Amino acid sequence: MKLSIVTTLYYSSAYINEFYKRTKKTAEGITKDFEIIFVDDGSPDNSLELAVAIAEHDSRVKVIELSRNFGHHKAIMTGLRHARGDYIFLIDSDLEEEPELLKIFWEKMQEENDLDVVYGYQAARKGNWFERVSGKIFWNMINKMSYIDIPENMITARLTTRRYNDSLLEYNENQIFLGGVWPDVGFKQIGVKVNKHDQSNSTYTFSKKISMFIDSITSFSNKPLVYIFNTGLLITLISLIYIVKLIYDKIVLNISIEGWSSIVVSIWFFGGLIILSLGIIAMYLSKMFLEIKRRPFTIIKKIHKKKGNNEN
């Protein structure tokens, strides 16, 4: 198999047919030996039915039906595990990322020796001012806390070699953050500036974005724990200095200390700091708890292919 094209489905019914036609046309311009893998991530609409209908008429199409919604990144990894191509093209199906990027990435891949990944990044973030500003803050904080350099404004679309894909699949953590895993795998990677269209309402709600931010930090950085230690150390040193000062004022200068307001404020401040610190530690412990249980990454309900060649 020369080329595998992997995409996920979640509220994708409005785009599937056009995505399929444009992707097939672009792939046929490169090779006749390709496959298209749709991963239905428990989509509530009729995305699965539309994709299965395509698969029943095209033997190059495979639809992986998950038993429920597991999340975008897990669905992606499931699709990549079933890709058989020497090259794997990953892209979202909502047409915000143009299927024709495959040709651009393919030509870039052929230009340089020993190149394993061609990925896209946004020339300018789409969305309103809040999405742009929050996105900027997100990537800045991620890079400041991460031990690896994560390219800013990456999109899903990317073309990779088989050896890169096999290395990527060795990452078996249950709570996976692909934005950090992709550069962490290594190999030679090159970014291509692209324009991402704004054709659909994002399924990433504000709460999901917050959750993803927390997952990304706790997956790729221990700096929050280091910050807790440094904060505790600093507070301890300041407290010791202040205690020495109080003793000096009382014994040497005979100054009496009065007032409860400062004590109450201090209790509230340090109480909140302790709870915050425990919360951060709890998030790391929660991740460890989820990982050591070794539960299935995703559960496949059925694999749909052309009639007479179905897998269960």
List the quaternary state of the chains: single chain
Tell me the fraction of residues in β-strands, as a range.
Answer: 15-25%
Shape field: elongated
CATH-wise, what's the superfamily of the largest domain? Spore Coat Polysaccharide Biosynthesis Protein SpsA, Chain A
Q: Provide the succession of SSEs.
A: EHEHEHEHEHEHHEHHHE
How confident overall, as mean pLDDT?
A: 82
| Total number of domains | 2
CATH topology of the largest domain: Spore Coat Polysaccharide Biosynthesis Protein SpsA, Chain A
Structural class: alpha/beta
Q: Could you explain how this protein is built, in words?
A:
With about 300 residues, the protein is an alpha/beta fold. It has 2 domains: about 5-220 and about 295-305, Spore Coat Polysaccharide Biosynthesis Protein SpsA, Chain A, CATH 3.90.550; about 225-290, no CATH class. Helices cover about 50% and strands about 15% of the residues. It is built from 10 helices and 8 strands. It has helices at about 15-30, 45-55, 70-80, 100-110, 130-145, 160-170, 180-185, 205-220, 225-250, 260-290, and strands spanning about 5-10, 35-40, 60-65, 85-90, 115-120, 155-160, 190-195, 300-305. The longest helix has about 30 residues, at about 260-290.
What labels would you give this structure?
elongated, 8-stranded mixed beta sheet, 8 strands, alpha/beta, Spore Coat Polysaccharide Biosynthesis Protein SpsA, Chain A, 312 residues, single chain
Question: Topology of this structure?
Answer:
Elements lengths: L2 E7 L6 H13 L5 E7 L6 H9 L5 E6 L5 H10 L5 E4 L10 H11 L5 E6 L6 H17 L8 E8 H7 L9 H7 L4 E6 L11 H15 L2 H29 L9 H32 L7 E5 L8
